[in-house]
Structure formats: structure tokens, C-alpha cells
Design a protein that fits this description.
Elements lengths: L16 E2 L2 H7 L1 H8 L8 H13 L6 E3 L2 E11 L4 E18 L6 E10 L8 H17 L5 E6 L4 E6 L2 H20 L17 H4 L9 H19 L1
Parallel strand pairs: 1-4, 5-6
Antiparallel strand pairs: 2-3, 3-4, 4-5, 6-7
Length: 235
């Protein structure tokens, strides 16, 4: 069930999307659909490395308070307006008179989300859109304003500060709305072959060269049936 618009209405919980899916969608719409619509997954050395790194970062038990900074790891967030839910790698709460109340804590706090990423800084906005989506969830949950966040890349071991401007926010809203539409229709976009396909863990399931095939699952099922027929014929 779709809200009438992306601003004033809410999605029911059963229709919520995975927040991190916006990173996949921005990188490749077909990749997102293969994972979230067709429920396909395959791992390579890049995804395995990223998974291990996130297991360390997303350990809630490692949350801590140092001075006036409260660091929460693996914080679950959601947005009824965007129709998404997910986990923030790290959220820093800085004690500040310009902040907002936080349940279970004295004083006022400003909110600063940090998303950890494998490798180095990317050219596109995929990582920044995910970070912005996390901030928008936090804003909705905590009734606050988050003008800035950061991306931390494991290869460079440094933060990239990101201004969460209107351009990013508009794209986040538009992307999630399109993702909801695709999921409701069960539509998998056709492939657009790029150099990025070479490092994609789903390449063998996506089969990007077969651009006329709208569904990788359908292609795989057809090939399995053909192989089964061949086995029976040769038996």
C-alpha cells in the first residue's frame, strides 16, 4: 500500500524497505532488485570483507561514554514517512545546549551519524545517500535537525564529513519512492553493463550481458529445467 505522497503520509510497517538498500539502488537499480525483490545473494571477497568490518562496528555492547560524547553502535532506526528501517553503524551524541533530549540521559544532545564503509571514497553519491537516509530517520525519531554526518572509509582510516543538504534529501525521498513502486510491482530493471559489473558479487546471477532478460531468477530456473531435461534424455 502506497502513501499518496512522499511527505505527509506514512507507509505501514509491513511495507518498510531496508534502509541500506538505497546504497545498492544508487549503485545499480538491478542489483537492488535482485537482492530485495528476487531475494538473490552471492558473496565475493569485497562483500565478505565489508561484512566482517561491519560485525566489529555494529557491536552494541561496545557503545561507550567518553566525556561529553556518547557513542552508540548498531543503533536501530526507522522512518514511517520514508517507509524504511535499518541500523546505523555509529551515532555520536554530543552534549550541547543546542541539542535535544535523549531518553535515559540527562541534558541535551546533538546527533551525528557515522557510516563505516569498506575501501576508499567513492565517486558517486551511493554512500552519502545512505548516510543521509540514516540522518532523516534519526530526525524523525528524535525530533531534531542533523545538518552533517560522516563516512569512515577503512582504507584511508579517516572521516569524510558530509553536508546533508536539500539535494541529498530530495534524492533520498525520490529513490525510496521508486523502490517502493518497483517492489509493489515486482519489477526487476534490465541490466546496464558498466565497469562496475566486474566487481559485483551478483554478476553470475545478474548476467548483465543478457539485457533482454528482466528476471535473473527466471533465467536460472529455465536453465535448470533445461539441464534436468538433458539429464533425463541422456539417462
Amino acid at each position: 500500500m502506497m502513501p499518496s505522497d512522499g511527505l505527509d503520509s506514512e507507509y505501514p510497517e509491513e511495507d518498510w524497505l531496508s534502509l541500506s538498500g538505497i546504497q545498492h539502488y544508487s549503485f545499480c537499480k538491478r542489483q537492488w532488485a535482485l537482492i530485495h525483490i528476487e531475494q538473490l545473494w552471492n558473496e565475493n571477497y569485497l562483500t565478505a570483507s565489508g561484512r566482517v568490518e561491519h560485525q566489529r562496528v555494529d557491536d552494541y555492547s561496545q557503545s561507550e561514554m567518553r566525556g561529553d560524547v556518547l557513542t552508540i553502535r548498531g543503533m536501530r532506526v526507522f522512518s514511517r514517512r520514508l517507509g524504511v528501517t535499518g541500523i546505523c553503524d555509529v551515532v555520536e551524541f554530543h552534549r550541547s545546549e543546542q541539542g535535544v533530549p535523549v531518553q535515559g540521559r540527562d541534558g541535551l544532545w546533538t546527533v551525528f551519524p557515522i557510516e563505516y564503509k569498506h575501501g576508499a571514497r567513492k565517486v558517486g553519491d551511493a554512500d552519502r545517500l545512505q548516510l543521509c537516509a540514516e540522518a532523516m530517520c534519526l530526525e524523525e525519531m528524535l525530533l531534531c535537525s542533523i545538518p552533517q554526518g560522516a563516512l569512515f572509509y577503512h582504507k584511508t582510516r579517516r572521516r569524510e564529513f558530509v553536508e546533508l543538504d536539500e539535494s541529498l534529501r530530495t534524492t533520498v525521498c525520490a529513490d525510496f519512492r521508486q523502490m517502493h513502486l518497483l517492489l509493489a510491482k515486482g519489477t526487476t530493471p534490465s541490466a546496464k553493463v558498466t565497469q562496475a559489473c566486474d566487481d559485483c558479487s551478483l554478476r553470475n546471477l545478474c548476467l548483465p550481458e543478457l539485457t533482454k532478460k528482466k528476471s535473473a531468477r527466471e533465467y536460472v530456473s529455465t536453465r535448470l529445467r533445461e539441464l534436468a531435461i538433458d539429464d533425463q534424455t541422456n539417462a
